[in-house]
Amino acid sequence: MKGTILYPSDAPMQNQGQIALILHAHLPYVRHPHRPNSLEERWFFEAMMETYLPLIDVFRRLEQDNVPFRITMTLSPTLLSMMEDKLMQSRFEEHLKTSIRLARSETKRLRTNNELQNVAALYLERWLKWLHMYRQCGGRVIEWFRHFDQKGWLECITCAATHAFLPLIKHPVMAHAQIEIGAREHERLLGQRPEGIWLPECAYSPELSPLLQASGIRYFMVDHHGLLTAQPQPHRLQYAPAMTEDGVFAFARDPESSHQVWSSYEGYPGDCDYREYYRDIGFDLGWNDEAEWNYIRPYILEDGARLNTGMKYYRITGAGSDKTPYRLDWALHKVREHAKHFLDSRERQLVQAQSWMDRAPLVVCPYDAELFGHWWFEGPLWVEALFREQHARGEQHEQRTKFVAPSDYIAAYPDSEQTDLTFSSWGRGGYADVWLQERNDWIYKHLHHAEDRLLQYAQRLRDSWGFRPVQERIMNMALKEWMLAASSDWAFILDAGTVTEYAAERTRQHLGRCHLLLDMLEQGVYDLIQLEKMEAEYPCFKTADYRLLLPDSSSPRRTDMPFYTVLQPLPPPPSTSPKAKVTLMLAWEFPPLIVGGLSRAVYDLSRHLAEKQCEVHVVTREVPDAPSYELMNGVHVHRVALIHSVTPIDFMDWVFQMNAAMSDGVDALVSRGLTFDFLHAHDWLVYPAAQDIKSTFGCPLIVTIHATEHGRNHGRIQGELPQRIHQMEYQLTEEAEHVIVCSHSMVQEVEQIFSLPRRKITMIPNGVEIGAESAAIQNLSGAAVPASGPPLLFYVGRLVFEKGIHVLIEAMPRILQSVPDAKLIIAGTGPMKQELEGQVQAMSLGEQVHFAGFVQDDTRDALIQSARVCVFPSLYEPFGIVALEAMRFGTPVVVSDTGGLAEIVDHGVDGYKALPGHIESLAWHVTDMLLHPELAAEMAATALYKVRTQYDWNTIAVSTRQVYEGVIAR
């Protein structure tokens, strides 16, 4: 049982304001057994010397003097693992002894400078004390934290196992594993299950609530804006916790108290009398003096790289580079002043809050623990002064506040307002900007793929292999490797731009080892030497258990949350009726993977063919979160797994790997009894597989060319890659019995560039799904066109040069001259995104142009319906499905007079066609649509009729089936 905190003149909680001081102690797992004296291990050593041992010393003094204190403290599982590790304990003691030698040497070197020598003596005295404390507990500093936790002075809480940014984990069951293993490690090392958790980076999303509840977590911390965006917004704001629908309490950071301590400019740490962090002899000595260099050389890295030694002699002094020597007595005076100021500020704040609160108000003050001691040298002394001042006020009956842990507050007030908290973090921007942006976004596709494989092999291990000790060890180690790769620290470092190679290498290393272990399971060859080496190198998380990944584990399942898809066996080949024709389609993208228009076109065609007595099997590449086989609207979808590499591979190598997997997948289907009448390949990316399957099984090949490299490059095939693609397109059409294209312009294009006979080509347009939405607007009139609100222009598609978005942006100033309040939304992603954003900023159009990024279909449809005009200014467009999507909703369109777009739109009848690449032409036609809504509505109604009568997928499926029959007849 925890001890009871006894405060002098302990008034009832209801009459006192409450303060929760929360310190988040965390470091990434930086154990490197084969690299002694590494920079990264120094992070741990410095934190021990400057933060954790000084805080323990403060706690010991307060306890010895009977000064009550109550602090909540996270001890992250990675930090606990290093504190527990015998190798790290030994290395830290050696580092401490080396620092003591340096301090002794400094007291001699500075014997003629009394001010600096006094500072050196201060360090020598401190570090000798830390060495004595460390040896006193046998290196097991965890025992000190456990002691204060059991006494009730501390409330120790946990964190996700490797401090992963939980909302960016793909599968909730994997996030639950991070949470549950963190809780288990906490219980193993500190003796009891944690009541609270510090969500890494304070990052919360609603999917986490049931996961926390399932692990017995009662509370967590969120940033202040996390409550401001909650629905409904709690009436008590940040002065009391809110509660999720699963009964977990959310405590919000108080911005005022945070600023007072966090800010190095306006907050306490920036005071002129405190020690200057950025002046260390590791950087100051030996630049122009060889003797000084030889002196400092043994105390920096072996390769000569400079680093902090801990010997810092100056106070902050002022903003300039001139610094005066540090005075501990001056700093201690400021510590006491700032402790009083903090308490006075909280009392004023809490008294004000009490005037309208229905319960004792609470101020939550969470900080990174390393602020105290490492960055702010006097931080631990400030913590001590805080509680001594609080104790003195209590003895004088002037105490108006009380320090509590979150669990204390929950015990006093078990009922809280329930609200739906939205996604938030305490990072830059308040969301995920730090951990998901262009410098680190590459991490997540690899992490997510590893998640998929871990879940698949956990299921296989249970269902197929049973529970065997070696296989379980492999799975548990693979899980650890994924967890270590998922640490938010690596993405943070990549964002900050410091030691980025190390962060990237750690991510790649752990993911590579994870896949290596899973490959052992797949191949049935268990390299025990390699396994033991990995286990010895990273001996962390003894409670990690892959069974947490199984669906019948303690992780919760909710019907509204997608968990994961396990490997499913291929179904037996369906019986085929004599009249049915079996079509095997090859497509490199297929829903839910949507890169461009090809995915939707293949999906719509295949499902409508399935309604026309065609049995359709689509072979495509694997998609995270999608099953390896499923029957989707009558279409048999087979997703083949690719061989994945942690390091990026050449694009063409990836293409050939995908095709090899497709060929193997078809071989497996045929071996299980499937036969097919036609092979239908979509675009050049599946050419190698199509050629292999045709030659192996002798089936007729039909090819749909959705676009050409010749067209994308405006006839200029330059460079090795475009030439290879062009050659593969040529070979694909040559191998085909028949070629389908989607527009008359494409007929001419493939006929000319591939030297195809006209009889070998059929034009079948793509279509759109006509549903209830178009029936509701088929009788459009001018009155139906929205006239209120700013006129909205909308573009959706890939952000590539041939789509002409840059032309539309260039046209915006001319449009704004006539329609000043017009706004443009650009939806989609692609390689030109940064360039286009830069163009918008350079033209000062940031207020008028918004980049929406990738949008789901329902969002796309809503934006189309909200738009006054949809604009598609392509320079090259084989078909132009997006124009049809706009037309089916009755939204007026302006397109470029090129390719398939030119064939879809009749100029001035059902839309406008602007000259391709012509800024003035595009601006005039868009402006005319905006200024004449009645005319625009008439064109939109005509366009809707055209879509319903000419671009229906049922008609298109029949035409495609006729091509199949014609090939058979020939």
From TrEMBL:
<dbReference type="InterPro" id="IPR040042">
    <property type="entry name" value="Branching_enz_MT3115-like"/>
</dbReference>
<dbReference type="InterPro" id="IPR015293">
    <property type="entry name" value="BE_C"/>
</dbReference>
<dbReference type="InterPro" id="IPR028995">
    <property type="entry name" value="Glyco_hydro_57/38_cen_sf"/>
</dbReference>
<feature type="domain" description="1,4-alpha-glucan branching enzyme C-terminal">
    <location>
        <begin position="446"/>
        <end position="548"/>
    </location>
</feature>
<dbReference type="InterPro" id="IPR037090">
    <property type="entry name" value="57_glycoside_trans_central"/>
</dbReference>
<dbReference type="Pfam" id="PF03065">
    <property type="entry name" value="Glyco_hydro_57"/>
</dbReference>
<dbReference type="InterPro" id="IPR028098">
    <property type="entry name" value="Glyco_trans_4-like_N"/>
</dbReference>
<feature type="domain" description="Glycoside hydrolase family 57 N-terminal">
    <location>
        <begin position="20"/>
        <end position="414"/>
    </location>
</feature>
<keyword id="KW-0119">Carbohydrate metabolism</keyword>
<protein>
    <submittedName>
        <fullName>DUF1957 domain-containing protein</fullName>
    </submittedName>
</protein>
<comment type="similarity">
    <text>Belongs to the glycosyl hydrolase 57 family.</text>
</comment>
<dbReference type="InterPro" id="IPR011330">
    <property type="entry name" value="Glyco_hydro/deAcase_b/a-brl"/>
</dbReference>
<dbReference type="InterPro" id="IPR001296">
    <property type="entry name" value="Glyco_trans_1"/>
</dbReference>
<feature type="domain" description="Glycosyltransferase subfamily 4-like N-terminal">
    <location>
        <begin position="595"/>
        <end position="769"/>
    </location>
</feature>
<dbReference type="Pfam" id="PF09210">
    <property type="entry name" value="BE_C"/>
</dbReference>
<feature type="domain" description="Glycosyl transferase family 1">
    <location>
        <begin position="787"/>
        <end position="942"/>
    </location>
</feature>
<dbReference type="InterPro" id="IPR004300">
    <property type="entry name" value="Glyco_hydro_57_N"/>
</dbReference>
<dbReference type="Pfam" id="PF00534">
    <property type="entry name" value="Glycos_transf_1"/>
</dbReference>
<dbReference type="InterPro" id="IPR027291">
    <property type="entry name" value="Glyco_hydro_38_N_sf"/>
</dbReference>
<dbReference type="Pfam" id="PF13439">
    <property type="entry name" value="Glyco_transf_4"/>
</dbReference>
